[in-house]
Amino acid sequence: MLLITIDTLRPDALGWIAGANDTPAIDALARESARFRTAVTPVPLTLPAHVSLATGLLPHRHGVRDNGQVLAAGPATLAETLRAGGYATGAFVSGYPLRALFGLDRGFDRYDDVLPGGTEGWMERPAADTTAAALTWLRSVKAPWFAWVHYYDPHDPYTAHEAFPRSGPRAAYDSEVAYVDHAVGALLAALPRGPLVTVLTADHAESFGEHGEWLHGFFVYDTTMIVPLLVRFPGRVPSADREAMVGLIDVAPTIYELLGLPVGRDVDGASLVPALLGDTPPADATRLETLQPWLAFGWSPLRAVRTAQWKLIDAPRPELYDLRRDPEETRNVIDQHEAEAHRLRGELAPVASNRSLGTERVSDPAVQARLEALGYLSTATAAVPPGDLPDPKDRLRERRTLLEAEALLRKGAYDDAVARFDAVLASDPDNRFALLRAGMALLKAGDPKSAAPRLERAVTVAPELAEAHYALADALTRTRRYEAAIAEWQATTRLQPRRVAAWSNLGTVLGLVGRLPDARAALERAVALAPEDPRLLVNLALVERRVGDDAAAAGHLLAAARGLEAGGDRAGAARALADALAAAPELRARAAADPRLAPLLQPLRFP
Ligand SMILES: [Zn+2]
């Protein structure tokens, strides 16, 4: 059983759908498959959409509402069910949001998320390498097997491939799709033909300015929510286009039925096998969502319900589209069809009441930084509050400005970035993203004094936001407002108790104001989290010496000297060793017996 997902794939980038881009391998697969032109993703974000695909559940049921969250134990995944059914299971993913640490590795014998490519926070694997990794595994396993192969290249930034030249405003994107098509062709060509069930689909599509949106994730229009779905399965059923609206949540139940495995009862999707066989199933309503406007910018999240004919978007200013007459979703007809809107709102009610953000996020700042580099900006960690929030469609100009500002910040153009963040703050003064990022840009520009008021506002608007407390603490420390800084470092450690730098900085500032026992306690927390870090050991030892505990200080300095020597800093190591022996000369024998430290003793002269 082969499942291929192509990230960020617009249906009209495929030859068999629009004819504009040449994708011979996928087109050939399409000729042998049941083809769904209206497959709907429940959420336009990589990890949540893939979790829905793997579980048959809507995001509010499986709890992964955003990239960077972790799939909790509970919902059965395709891989778990197939492994229990006797299949060897292997996954070959190509993009950072799907790394094993986010939990989709459950049920796979092999979860290959080696991502060698990319620059500055980017991590991805080119399609050809992913195909090669998958084929290596496939050659080593016995049937039956389940392989999930995920390609990431069409995700931005778009890079044109010389071998696949394309033209027009989407040239680089179309070239990426053509490059993936070639890798899909290599994969399919190397596999034995025969009774292999093959599914090809995507997690979401991509917007190129439709509705004022670029990329994906901000809106729930069909531009980003409709993906292609191909199902090739053994049997004598003629391949053909299927008109039915289907969902990514239907893929897992379909695979189960095709393979003769039990379809879980409690899933939101339904098997498409009747539709594969040519029936037109009764058109069901499906739910869509994106929490990104709230998570990134503090604006209203969007939820929608879609039927074959209608889409109701539950925004502060709600929208209703008649998709049969207006597939581009350009004419909001909610005033003309109040009864329809009311009925659809009823379908949405159980989801609309759900304001939680689902499962835990990975709280590692390095993980967050990588997701930000991919354009997944999340500054909210609290549930969506009741009451009025701005409508995302009324904030398109601000979003554009914020994304420009963010790009400038990443390039190091701090003044220009701050000017843009401040322009947004002029019309949206409590925008926590603009407040936080303007403050961070000013810190990087060496202007902590100007950063502080913006960051003070950020922690007031979003008290749960650890990053804002951290940045404010930094600004206050650098402007020597130590008592206020201590309170912010403490707030950071309460929100992120495993963040070493927060404990370390807290200890340093406590030491500066002479609160030595507190400083020592904070630095001990930092050392407990990172016991090998020589810089922390030296800082702790300094405080220990100030409180007169020379024995403890000497022990930590000795450990620091070992660490510094191992890291190649011989001068630093010699200094730490000298300090250790000054504090406790009796340690000289122990140092002399240590093969790491003995060579450093030679040049040290002691009275
Ligand atoms: Zn994606």
Characterize the structure shown.
Helix content is 46%, strand content 11%. The protein is an alpha/beta fold. Strands 1, 2, 3, 4, 5, 6, 9, 10 and 11 form a nine-stranded mixed sheet that branches. Helix 6 (127-140) runs parallel beside helix 7, helix 15 packs antiparallel against helix 16 and helix 18 (466-478) packs antiparallel against helix 19. The N and C termini lie far apart (76 Å). The model has no long low-confidence stretch (mean pLDDT 91). Bound molecules: zinc ion. Zinc ion is lined by residues 7-8, 46, 155, 203-204.
In short, what is this structure?
The protein is an alpha/beta fold. Helices cover 46% and strands 11% of the residues.
- Radius of gyration equals 28 Å
| Number of domains as seen in the coordinates | 3
| Contiguous runs where pLDDT drops below 50 for at least 5 residues | none
- First-residue to last-residue Cα separation: 76 Å
From the coordinates shown, what is the CATH architecture of the largest domain?
3-Layer(aba) Sandwich
Features:
Serine Threonine Protein Phosphatase 5, Tetratricopeptide repeat; Alkaline Phosphatase, subunit A; nine-stranded mixed sheet; 26 helices; 3 domains; 607 residues; binds zinc ion; four-stranded antiparallel sheet; single chain; 15 strands; alpha/beta
Layout of helices and strands, plus pairs?
Elements (H helix, E strand, L loop, with lengths): L1 E5 L8 H4 L5 H8 L2 E7 L5 H10 L3 H4 L15 H7 L3 E5 L17 E3 L14 H14 L4 E7 L19 H20 L7 E4 L5 E2 L5 E2 L6 H4 E7 L7 E3 L3 E2 L3 H9 L13 H4 L9 E5 L1 H6 L4 E5 L3 E5 L4 E4 L15 H15 L12 H9 L22 H16 L2 H14 L4 H13 L3 H14 L4 H13 L3 H14 L4 H13 L3 H14 L4 H13 L3 H17 L3 H14 L4 H5 L5 H4 L6
Parallel strand pairs: 1-5, 1-6, 2-10, 2-11, 3-4, 3-5
Antiparallel strand pairs: 2-9, 6-9, 7-8, 12-13, 13-14, 14-15
The structure holds zinc ion (ZN).
The site of zinc ion (ZN) has 6 residues, from loops.
